[in-house]
Amino acid sequence: MAHEHDHEHDQHHHRHHDHGDIDWAGMAPLLESQAELYAPLYERALAWLARQQTDPGLVVDAGSGPGVVSCLLAETFPGARVVAVDGAEPLLERARARAERLGVADRFGTLAGELPGVLGDLDYPADLLWAGRSVHHLGDQRAALAAFAGRLAPGGTLAVLEGGLPARFLPRDLGFGRPGLQARLDALHEEWFAQMRAGLPGSVAETEDWPALLAAAGLGHPHSRSFLLDLPAPATGRARAHVAATLSRLRDSFGDHLDAGDRATLDRLLDPDDEGSVHRRPDVFVLAAHTVHTATKSL
Ligand SMILES: C[S@@+](CC[C@H](N)C(=O)[O-])C[C@H]1O[C@@H](n2cnc3c(N)ncnc32)[C@H](O)[C@@H]1O
């Protein structure tokens, strides 16, 4: 998800170098804990959306994963029915369990299948269609957005979360190793991302100008806005766990592509017995930015 220059960091995928063949169900705990950590960012993004689309009847979360944002959508729009759509049924199971726990199950449904075609199975058009870091997993992003737009009711809004900035967790100079480790990991992620996209079924190279793609899908009134997740040091246990899980995946995925010095630095950062590790050092933080692009179907 990110890129093409979306610098979104789907760090969970790094383990999979096999061109987009991602084990989504296996990523459930990571997707869920990441989305929970990012909840303050999503809440602000949805509050912004709620000012554009005030009283939707049907809200669709396309590529919902385990449904953290789907449930936030249900909370933000108490009058709406929310349908979480995803290719991975085990993730939708989690979404349903979450809706049950949060007391919104009576107006919450799921739909399993391949995007964008599965949207044809919706009973009626959506007033708000949210796609959070999912479009970049579809081979033909332009066609996908056109299909999403085709499932909007007149006056409906399409909101696509793509792009932003790579997350930062640590100072540039850690006090050991060569400064700039995260920037070098970002560069490797970009390579992985490009290969992931190139390997998707029906992959089409596209200029990732999201407002232009929304306009090409026939939608008007484009807006783009970026939202920060700013969790300064000292980090909570949850933020530390996220940083450790993310760096650990990067170590597993890209370790072989780093030089010996950077590998040793990552090993220190991940060693719970090391005072300089992300488990113990006082300067760990989470700073990230995600961009949401919206546009509306004419009445
Ligand atoms: C990076 S996750 C994002 C999950 C969630 N929207 C979030 O922001 O946390 C991408 C999601 O898109 C789903 N997905 C990817 N390709 C898909 C496809 N072709 N059809 C349906 N779902 C797909 C995956 O199963 C996964 O849940």
From TrEMBL:
Gene3D superfamilies: Vaccinia Virus protein VP39. Residues 1-20 are annotated as: Disordered. Coiled coil: none annotated. Residues 1-11 have a biased composition (Basic and acidic residues). Pfam families: Methyltransf_12. Residues 60-158 form the Methyltransferase type domain. This is Methyltransferase type 12 domain-containing protein. It comes from Streptomyces glaucescens.
